[in-house]
Design a protein that fits this description.
Blueprint (H helix, E strand, L loop, with lengths): L1 H7 L5 H32 L3 H7 L11 H6 L4 H32 L6 H13 L4 H11 L17 H13 L2 H9 L4 H9 L4 H16 L3 H6 L9 H20 L11 H37 L1
């Protein structure tokens, strides 16, 4: 008890206090540098195009307007694209994690027959690929995935780098857990889903975020395979089409067409589409970050 009382009365030195204050100042300054551009984007999206052309970007818009958002949310296409992106992100992340975990766990087990050959095969796909034309022929001609949502999911279902991340994390889990479960009659599937995965929350959260960001920001595959069906356009591809349309009108106006370039909300529309694209990720990320911190702390306490 005396030792605990003595430790509780230990005072922090001035140098430690100064270092702590310096760390808070640096962290606060870094957070400010990250927040200010987002504030500029928000203010610009609600500003008049003529105001930006005359006075530049400002933190507080002088003339508040919703013209950019009216163009972005015109019609029901953006809601369809939101639904496509959400389905692709959620469903694709779930399938990718399921397949990646089922592939990474056997590779993490020592003594797997042909394990080195399978690792080499997966690593080979990280360095070399068939190219764009063979991939397009495979997806469109042989798999018949053109103008379907699955064209946005299946080609990106397994990322070799993520598989290796999961394999390395699974390898760090003590083998005694799996051995004791086998003695109790558990099979490999039971060990994976009831023992390995619950102990791998930090790795699962990290790799899931990688997959989710990849699916959410996907637009190139939509341009290749789904350009003919608007009902399968993800949000990013729709935004790209809106921006190209605004740029086309601006080019026509610069060439002498009867278009009021100052009244065209091209810059503000770009900012509005950026907010529409990053908004859901900003809302979801704090919840994922909580699992990051919780999983890491549990692992550190258990040793």
């Amino acid at each position: 008890m005396k030792g605990k009382a003595a430790q509780s009365h230990i005072k922090i030195s001035r140098s430690e206090k100064g270092l702590k204050i310096l760390c808070y100042v640096i962290a606060g300054a870094f957070a400010l540098f990250c927040i200010v551009p987002i504030i500029y984007i928000i203010a610009c999206s609600f500003s008049e195009e003529t105001e930006i052309l005359k006075n530049g970007f400002k933190l507080i818009p002088q003339e508040f307007t919703l013209a950019a958002y009216e163009i972005v949310f015109e019609g029901s296409q953006i809601w369809v694209s939101y639904g496509v992106s959400i389905f692709v992100t959620v469903g694709g992340t779930f399938l990718s994690m399921l397949v990646s975990c089922m592939l990474a766990y056997p590779l993490s087990v020592k003594g797997l027959r042909y394990g080195s050959g399978i690792n080499l095969y997966i690593y080979f796909t990280m360095i070399f690929n068939g190219g764009l034309v063979p991939t397009y022929m495979l997806v469109s001609r042989y798999l018949h995935l053109t103008n379907t949502i699955w064209a946005l999911i299946l080609p990106s279902m397994i990322i070799p780098w993520n598989v290796f991340l999961l394999r390395n994390f699974f390898s760090a889990i003590p083998e005694s857990l799996a051995e004791s479960a086998k003695l109790d009659g558990a099979n490999d599937a039971t060990i994976l889903f009831r023992i390995i995965l619950p102990c791998s929350k930090p790795a699962l959260a990290t790799v899931s975020l990688f997959y989710a960001l990849g699916y959410w920001n996907e637009w190139f595959k939509a341009m290749l395979y789904n350009a003919g069906d608007k009902n399968t356009w993800p949000l990013q591809y729709l935004i790209m089409q809106l921006i190209r349309k605004a740029e086309t009108i601006s080019n026509m106006a610069s060439q002498g067409a009867a278009v009021n370039l100052a009244a065209l909300p091209s810059t503000t529309m770009k900012m509005a589409t950026a907010l529409c694209a990053i908004g859901p990720i900003i809302l979801v990320y704090p919840f994922v970050q909580k699992y990051f911190t919780g999983g890491i702390m549990v692992g550190s306490v258990k040793g």
